[in-house]
Amino acid sequence: MAKIERDDIQIISRHSNWSVKNIDQTLKENIYSTKEAWQKFLRLFFISLGVSFTIAGIIFFFAYNWAHLDKFFKIGLVEGLITATTLVILFSKLSHDIKNIILTGAAMLVGVLFAIFGQIYQTGANAYDFFLGWTLLITLWVAVSNFAPLWLIFILLTNTTIVLYSQQIAHNWSFVFITTLLFSCNSVFLIATLFINKINNALKPPRWFTNSLALAVVTSSTIGISFGLFDNSKGTLFVLLTVSLLAYSAGIWYGLKARNGFYLSVIPFSVIVIISALLIKLSDDFGMFFLITIFVITSVTLVIKNLINLQKKWIN
């Protein structure tokens, strides 16, 4: 039996003689967070906050005392912290969630270690190989942890590596090709996440994580296509248009099937932006900008109206 939702209780209460006492009891049992749930949330929240402040403190410690510290002490201190946190994760009896939070902190310390190394030996703190090494060294941790925040950091590092590589090494890559590459990379992560969610409910990622990936995919395609309309990379633009059309169609289908309004909102808004860019490509005079304004207002209103109607249909 599916879990009862707040909307179900409201509908039943309006069309039945369900007593206020029983409604209140049902809300407490199925909707409201319990004392134990709040305690777990606050415990994980403060631990995450503590780990974040600790990493920030380490960074500021090195920044403030950089000139007074020996280079071997700088590197050895961070390596010792990474080793200590790893040993705590492996041999302590802490809960699984707390270990994952500490592991995320250790992954951030790997980046601090690379930054210190790059600063000492002047290898460059914004070089693509800095982020590539950081990404590769935490790959195993990311794979075994199954922790959404750590996966998000890994994906951000992957995207950053691609962008910096295109700027520093692959100078012949066009902007449309870069956005196509980012679109493909994030699409692979999103498809893999949704597939894992389907075959194994125990590994189900949180919705904010899949929505973040979907937003990255849509943003990459929107920027790439809009820019490509004014660029000469027609071949790459055609490829991006083709794969985006397939991805958008699959996204609309999935949004309707899973009753997820996020996909049904970001994809139409992306299409609105792309059509607006196409109209500007055709003409950039005052009359066209007035037409684009009318088009955006009308299309956004229709999208919102359809989303509201869908939400009502799903609730009922």
TrEMBL record:
Keywords: Membrane, Transmembrane, Transmembrane helix. Residues 40-151 form the DUF2157 domain. The keyword Zinc-finger does not apply. Coiled coil: none annotated. The chain crosses the membrane at residues 44-66, 101-121, 127-144, 175-196, 208-230, 236-255, 262-280, 286-308. This is DUF2157 domain-containing protein. It comes from Bizionia saleffrena.
